[in-house]
Structures are given as structure tokens and as C-alpha cells.
Task: structure prediction
Amino acid sequence: MLLANYRDVTDLMNTFVFEAAAKLGMPFTNHTRYVELFLNGDYKGLYQLTEQVQEGDNRVAISETNGILLSLDLDDGPGLSPSATDNFSSSVFALPACVKYPKDEALTPARLDSVQREFAILEQAINRQDFKAADSLMDMRAFIHYLQLQELVENVELVAPRSVYLFKDSAGKWTMGPLWDFDAGYDFDWANMTVGHNYFADYRELVLGSDPVKRNGYDHNISPFFTNLFGCREFVELYKAEWNAIKATIVPDTWAEMERYVAYMQQGPAARELRRWPISGKNFSDEVRNMHYWLLNRVSYLNKIIDAYPLPAWTEPVTDDRFCGTLTVKTAMLWSAGYAQAVTVNIDATALAAVLGVSPAAFSTQNITSVIPLNADLTAGTNHTNGIYGGWFDQDGNPGYFDRGHVYIEVFNDLLRWNCGLQQSLCAHDSHKVTMQIQYRDGSTLKRVNVQVEFTIGR
Result:
């Protein structure tokens, strides 16, 4: 496969991750060669020659009979590819999944259903934060290294998700990879993506966040599939240990390989590429230097972030999932104040503890593992605000995007004091009723309380 890397002036962004993954021993990692392409004597530019991600003896070498290769990709999932017959929305986390192997006539409806059920077993272990079960189902070190490389290069496409692969060989464990597609990382400037090729402005943006189990990283919408195990003390301890083992060498050793590619490109290919495909204000040497400095600064920053990841107080997995009841909270908002309301939705800790069935003395907000916006039918919705948790709600009380939102709830660091507001152009009603769910860890029991928020909207 030839990759144009048209956004990437360095042509090194994918290659860096491939080489780093190889040094970490991640299976079936892609190789790289650089080639210059001519078509009927016409120079077309510099390209990265690498393998496709597919099943095969020399690629993802899994069993032809029982092997599974999945991609988690918004574009290939049922939402954006509804007519495809090889995809599904995963049972627990509603991930957009596409079966890359088996394929064609081997992927019968029964086999597709079997793949979904097998993946759901892993999802269920992650959902109940059962580290021991998840470790028995998944190559945990490969999962950790996968997340660490995604965070190292700030690949925000993990959030969608896009270009996420994982495989399973017969009775073996699920393994993340091969890694793929990283020209949306490295602090890519999405705001000017159609007119600029801008990277490396800020090394302090986080994909997983400073407290990943709370999903407080990039736009807070990353799937709990990637973050829920940070609620397990064993996982956090292993994650920190793996990072400590690689942090001093992952960039220097990998960059030594980059220097070989840079030396080749500086012999002429980089200059010919930019003459053929000029990018205003950019040159190869400066962008390579910027990339190297960004990565070095990134590691130094992540050292502090990862060292400060909270260690969960509990070690036992969730063995009991219990709905405890509903708490009603009434809040008045002013239509004239719009987004910036002075009021908040305040949850009384004593009342919440009573519904949870824990004593006020034992109650702690540290045990709140999530706050989820619910649909009107009380099924789980998706966060669509800038807070750690929250959502815009439409006129029927279903969480969605801003363009359909009438009122919002936004939860930041105070998990019992929620910001709220409204969109004046849509919110013409004098009242709204929405529901958020607080999930609370009480030993090995996950307790859930629905908080019904009744907004009265005055002028």
C-alpha cells in the first residue's frame, strides 16, 4: 500500500508509531519503505510503502478457521455504513465494529453474531472493571502499550474511534493492533484542517485525560472500553510500571530509526515532494525538528501526568450491579440568561447517600465512577458537552448534540454540583425534565441512582 501522508510534511508520523510499536514487541506491526512514484514519466511525489492491515500469513497471521480481525471505526460501523453486512454496534459500549476477518461468504449472519457475542464477553469484563477476567481475555500489556502510544502521539481519533484494530486467534486472547493512521495526532490543528498542515503547537493536550476512568481528556467522549480499567488498582499499577520501563528510551531509540529515514529524504526526495506538492510556509527540516522537540516535551509532560494517575481504593471487581432508586432535583433557570446560568443543579449528599443505602459518614464522592446522561426511556445516552460528564437534551429529554439541544447539564470536578443552561433559539418551553444517572462503587457493588432534574424556566 502507498500512503501519501498528504497532511504530514515530515512523512514520519505513521512511521514513528510503527517503529515504536516494533520496539515494544507489538505483533504484526507494519514496516516502512519510502518510494518516489512516477506515472508515465510524471513525478507524483514521495510515498510511504507499507502493508495493509489484513489477515494473512505475512500480515495478521491468525487462524483461517477461527481467527477474528476487527476494526473499531466510525466510518465502517452501522451508523455511517448502514447497508454493510459486516458490521455491528457492540453490545456493551455501542462501539462501531466492522469484521475484517472472516469476510465475504465466510462471514455468515450466524458468524457475525458469534463475533459480536465473543467481543461482548471482553466488553462485559471491562465494564464491570474486573481486571482478572479482562486479563484472562486480553493481552493486557499489548493493550497498555497500545494506549500509551496513542497518548504519546496524541491520536485523538481513538475517541471516534477510527482506525482501531484488534484480533483474536482461535482460543487465544484479544490483542490490540496493528496500529494504524496517525496523521491526526501530534496536536493536529483541526480548526484549519482544510487550509493548513499545522501540528506540534501544544504538547499538553490529553486523549485519555489526567484521570482516565473519568474520561476527562479530549472532549470527554472516549469510549469506556479504553478507560474503564483505570478503575482497577492492578491495571493502573501495571500501566505506570510499563510506562516507567519505556519512558527513557521510547523516543530516543525510535528517533534513531527516524534519522535513517530523514537522511534518505534529505538527499532529494523531500525537496522534490515539496516542489511537486508545495505547502505554504512549511519546509521539511523545520517540521522534522518541531516533531522531535514536541515528542521529547510530550514524554516529559506525560511522566508527570501518568505518575499522578489516581490509584483506585478498591481492588475487587464488580460482582453486583444494583439500581437503587430515583432522586428528584428541582432547579429554576432564566431563559434570558441562556448558556451562562448563575444557578446550578445541586445534589444533596445526604439524600443521595440515603438512596444508595450507605451511611452519610461512609459516603464519598471519590466512589462515584460515572455520571451518565440517560435517554427518555432511561437507557444510557452519550456525553455531548465540554464537561467530564453531561449532555445537551432535546425537547423530549434525550441527550444529543448541541444543534438539537434545549437544555444542558455539564459536570466538571464537583460531581454533586452541575452546571446547567439552555439554548435560547430552541428552548421555548417553560419546563424541562431530564435524567442523569450517578454510578457509585460500594465495595464490589456498582450502585446506580437516577437523578431526575426538573427545570422550571422563567423569563
In short: The chain has a mean pLDDT of 93. The first helix runs from residue 13 to 23.
